[in-house]
Structures are given as structure tokens and as C-alpha cells.
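Order emerges. One example.
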Amino acid sequence: MALVTALRRLAHVRLRECSRRTAAVTSGAWLTGQRSFTTGTGSLRSDNKVTVHFINRDGEKITVKGSPGDSLLDLVINEDLDFDGFGACEGTLACSTCHLIFDEDVYKSLGRVTDEEMDMLDLAYGLTDTSRLGCQICLTKSLDGMVARVPESVADIRQSKDGSS
């Protein structure tokens, strides 16, 4: 019981934790190394969804809806969006492939960037003053209608120097 209490306290220390991650830590999934993405099994009513507009590498606007608490990486995976190389580390803050660029006003509303996220952003191609990692951005109702641009290039160690897999 003390371990569960300690894990709950540890989960609340991080400022940018999503509610789904806190649930994973307290349920023990974190201890076993399991990774799960939200499945959208909650309320399917559209008034409980957050609309996000992605601008892909080709300039195409893709509009999707996600549940509050989902990360932008979860949204890309759950909606099966085809952003080449996106989310290689599955949200473990070990790469920068979920790098996204935001408008200034949206960026300011996203909250503080952690040192760990900043370290990974240093590895991102096309880094801007309003760059963030999609795995660290959790949807809230206040982000409804936000626009996230996918950079033209991605730093993906899984690809060889000539760009082939």
C-alpha cells in the first residue's frame, strides 16, 4: 500500500503528466514496462471531444477529434494518421519524431516544457521557438480547434542515411 501511495505522489510531481499516464502508474502498468494507448472507449459524444487540426508535411490539413487527457501522439496513433516516422519511441521521451510546431498563442497555452522534453527537442530537425513533442501535449477542452504543424523532416534513427528504412 505504501508503494502505491509513493507512486501516486511521484506521478503528481511531474507537471505535464496526463490523466491516463497517472492511471497507468497507479495500476502497475508502469512497473511492468507495459505501454498502452487510449482506445477511445470513453464517451463518444462529440461534445466531449477536442478538435485538432494537423498540417502534414505536404501542407494538407487533417482534422481529427480526441478525448481530453489523450496526448497528441495518442491521437495520431488512434486515428491512424500517416505521418512517416512519427512516435518512434512510443511516447517514452527517447526521440524527437513526434516534434510538432504550434502557433504562438497555442504554444503559450501548452504549459511549461520539462528539461527532458527540451533535451529531446534539441535533436529535432526544423526546431522553432514554438516546437513541442506531441507525446508531451495532453488534450484539454481549452485546446479545442488548435493547429499543429508536422515539420518537413524528422530525425528518425531507424532510417538509413539515404532515407530508406
